[in-house]
């Protein structure tokens, strides 16, 4: 047996693992537990370096079942950056070194997912990501009922995992292989009933994780009881990974486009309409993130490289904008997490209100924010694939979305009497992180050519 | 393709038929007179002593988890032993890494007091 | 280089000063803030006037024009151009902003920082959208315009301001989104499967006008402008927005924002979708006529002065739409003239209402009466602007409406006949307004001081320009000559539809015909190449 092994290919996976072990070791001595934070960031920076080193090597295979292509390296770099941001938002909050170690392991699981084209590896990585995520979540004491929400997520996710495994076994049964490319080749001429059933079950599992309508019920319940770092994790990283899996699957497997069109239209409509009537900020964010997944799926409908690029653009915009919003919201001390508390915020904290306004306008897709560029690219994909019905649904949805984002802005600037405030003694790391993100987003929206270069890297060399 | 699954289908049908048939038969043939004793959980003819949901010490689950982890490790070793000759040094290093990771976890558990069972048994 | 700088400054300068206003330290005092705002708007007006001779004296299609790649891979360039049409509207915008800045210290006593910031932000966005000749760039400016206007309504408006701001924003955003789809579709149709995508205006003009999707794109893009104008069934946001907006916001809204809808039709919709435009012209002219009558009836029934003027805008803009779609060049001239005339007269009327509201805090018609006795100077101006708006001969409003009516009579006699009733209606409600406010029994409890110097400084230029335009309309009409030429060249270069004949052989249109045939030849060559 000949194992082609190159350390360069493994380094992006070795660093997070190694440093998470160091975190756990540091956790044994109370005096050392502050080192966990350091190990976390050093590990991620090393990973970033290792991933950047992969550009010259793609596309290639590693360990037989992992595929390193531009999509993986791009996604890996994005993911590392997102984890750095999440870590930065949590500096000073997460005291125990174990929590940092767990977060690194969550990252490792997510990273493997991006490269996995073997369904078994995909499933193992997905579960590693998910179970460790649940563990990490359970440490949080902020939020209304964090443990309750964590258990809820765990049960839902475990339920969804059952569907995924069922789907994988049927796919294996119908094609005789676990490799996505092989399955695609096998079934391309005559998809059987078992293939269709397997694919459907597999997708149902992924849809649960992505909280796509009609599998979205858990999202708002979990979000509303949990802390903002967890919300950012679920709304950004979890969706990022789910979308990546879908992208991989769509790239290789034949699949009815109508299903996706229907799901996309349903998701954005239900998400937006439900967000319209929410009174609690966290629930509103939950439904708004669901609606954004609908838009992401709309880009996926294209199924071609242009669609992938639009999706990459949308991901860059959505993930970082959401992170910035989570950062701003983390700063505030809220009584009941009700949206009325934002009334008149611009008088109390003009700069924070401005930041939030810019982010909300971005989420509403109003120029000149990045949200507009992302929406424009997604519309373009829908137009070019001839999905006019979906386009009309998307336009109406943009209006609905603009309504509730705008209503929020109206609260901050045009009403009085809210109680939300920022206790200035805490939150410096969060503030600095948010400023960094905002500067980045601003630079991209002033010169979107950079955005194009970033997103076209993703599709430069797909395997 | 579908014909390959006929035996499985038949088997499922048989299973459902047997289980369902038995239940149906006992429902039809039995006298069906309910009494308190009959409605109780079946405990080998004895009366139940306590609630069904007794609480165990968390250590019970801990030990169970440890057992499974190290059990799987052992299973992994068997497979490794089969190929270690043909794979050479690479496999040895690989297993060394694996064992080191497990050792870190093991020391972590010791330090966290997972194996300090004695105190709990005092109760 | 000078072009680049000048054109960029037209939108960057107000934007920069908006940011400057927002960051202005509170301790520096309001007085300095107002002076700074005044300074900026004087500079802006001066800059525009300085560009005037270059633009109006030039015979080229785009006297000033720049094009720099901005997002090359998406086909978007930073393309700004100035021609007579955009120049005149930019001048109108900057002058109105100057006047509003001048009079605002009387009206706005709190949150001055954000007021001026949003005002300049609005000015920047309007100038930008008048300059942009890249469709995506235009779309960005067009949508950005909503933000400051919605804030002006929402922060400084009256009781129902929040609902009005939301309605305004969402209504106009709907049009914007459909326009985005039209832009994407048109650009990709032009690019085809092989060419590089480009959203530049020149590129969009290559759109094959008989393309099966042309009707859809036309409807999608025109919807944005119809909502903004507003054309008859899409007008419902306007009365609310006007009524609730602060006086300065109303002046800007009526004076320039509504005109941008017409600008969009002339600049983008007519040239790009000429065939559909001409084929469906009858319908839009009909809607314009309905708007004239409907707006007039609405205005007649209002008890709220501000709402009355807002509804009269619907009526007057209906005339403009009728003129645009009647297919007559004369009416087109009239429409263009009416843009300026209506901007001035309605802007002035909203100023008057602002002055009244500042004194009495009432917009109800019944709380006024006999002001001619109490405040004679105020009454002079009020009557003057009302008559200008009603189209009194000798004042600017008359020229526009008259040109529209005589121009379109030849092609749409029935619609024109019905529309001319609108002139009658406007006389009825405006004279009723004058009667109610200036004459009649004096309200005893009404404390109404006469105009102060600041108000006079603002009102005199408006009144004078209305007189000058009314007596010597050629001044403006000549500015529009190149625009009319260009537009007619686009329209009559396309295969002529059945309903609308060739332009009449007026003396000054001969040139146009020449341009048309040249353009037609160009297009045919382009068509063969495709």
Describe the fold and architecture:
The complex is a heterotrimer of chains A (463), B (123) and C (530). Chain A is globular and about 65 Å long. Chain A has helices at 7-26, 35-53, 70-90, 97-115, 119-138, 146-175, 180-187, 193-210, 217-224, 228-252, 257-276, 281-302, 305-331, 345-348, 350-364, 370-384, 388-414, 428-446, 449-458; strands at 60-62, 66-68. The longest helix of chain A is centred in the middle third of the chain and has 30 residues, at 146-175. In chain A, strands 1-2 form a two-stranded antiparallel ribbon. Chain A has 463 residues and is mainly alpha-helical. The mean pLDDT of chain B is 82. Chain B has helices at residues 6-29, 36-39, 58-87, 89-112, 118-121. Chain B has 5 helices and no strands. Chain B is flat, with a radius of gyration of 26 Å. In chain B, helix 3 (58-87) packs antiparallel against helix 4. With 530 residues, chain C is mainly alpha-helical. Chain C has a domain at 290-483. In chain C, 75% of the residues lie in helices and 3% in strands. Chain C is built from 22 helices and 2 strands. Chain C has helices spanning 2-23, 30-57, 84-107, 112-131, 135-144, 146-156, 161-191, 201-204, 214-228, 237-244, 247-272, 274-300, 305-325, 329-360, 371-374, 376-390, 396-409, 413-438, 453-471, 474-479, 481-493, 510-529; strands spanning 64-71, 76-82. In chain C, strand 1 (64-71) and strand 2 (76-82) form a beta hairpin. In chain C, helix 3 (84-107) packs antiparallel against helix 11 (247-272). The radius of gyration of chain C is 22 Å and the shape is globular. The relative contact order of chain C is 0.09. Chains in contact: A-B, A-C.
Q: Class by helix and strand content of chain A?
A: mainly alpha
- Average pLDDT confidence of chain A is 89
Largest sheet of chain B, in brief, is: none
Radius of gyration of chain A using CA atoms only? 21 Å
The tally of domains of chain B stands at 2
Helix share of residues of chain A?
Answer: over 70%
Percent helix of chain B: 55-70%
Helix-strand string of chain B: HHHHH
| Oligomeric grouping of the chains | heterotrimer
* Strand proportion of chain B: under 5%
Low-confidence stretches of chain A: none
The counted number of beta strands of chain B is 0
N-to-C terminal Cα separation of chain B, in Å? 61 Å
